[in-house]
Amino acid sequence: MPHCHDDHCEHEHEDLPGSGEQALLYSRIDRDNIRCLNEAEPDSGKSVVKPWDQRLDNDKFVESDADEQLLITIPFTGSVKLRSICLRSGHGDYAPSKLKVYTNRDGIDFDDVSDMQPVQEWDLVRGSDDVVEYTTRSTKFSNVRNITLFFPENYGEDTSIVRFLGFKGEWSEVKRDPIITIYEASANPADHKNPAAEDKLHYSID
């Protein structure tokens, strides 16, 4: 079962069987458009966003490429009130040691995050076989359309490994106001008078 890590954690991680899956937002993620920077294998960042029953699977993981940093942007299919982030990382020194999170920032990269203040950040638990649950400050995560996770460093290895990412919270559909366009079925000549033509007509009669 996941362990909760946060100053505001209420230690409600004694989940009933299946409750983790029920709270997980896996089905509300636009998985085709997950974007991962500095991944060693293309699309491996997408593979760590798994269903709850695959959280302990070791076959799919993302490993960083040029250095220890990873940047993963995950879009949702609606608006999310995010309660927690669930993470299972690599073993030992391959585990990321810090996490910085940004919300509703489209297309950001490593240069952007170096100049931006994160919405929240955590010191991460060293690599564990368990899923670790990090509670968010809910007031700052009340209307999340996409979330970017920046792992800036690890515990000493040249590369970082993440094996599972999950998100818990409440999802709601984003409703857009309809665009109303009025079309004229058939033109009424009386509604489209030509002042110049009328003046000419009056002149001819006079």
Automatic annotation (TrEMBL):
Residue stretches making up the PITH domain: 14-187
PROSITE patterns assigned to the protein according to its UniProt record, in alphabetical order: PITH
GO cellular component terms, A-Z: cytoplasm; nucleus
Annotated family: Belongs to the PITHD1 family.
Name of this chain's protein: PITH domain-containing protein
Organism for this UniProt entry: Umbelopsis ramanniana AG
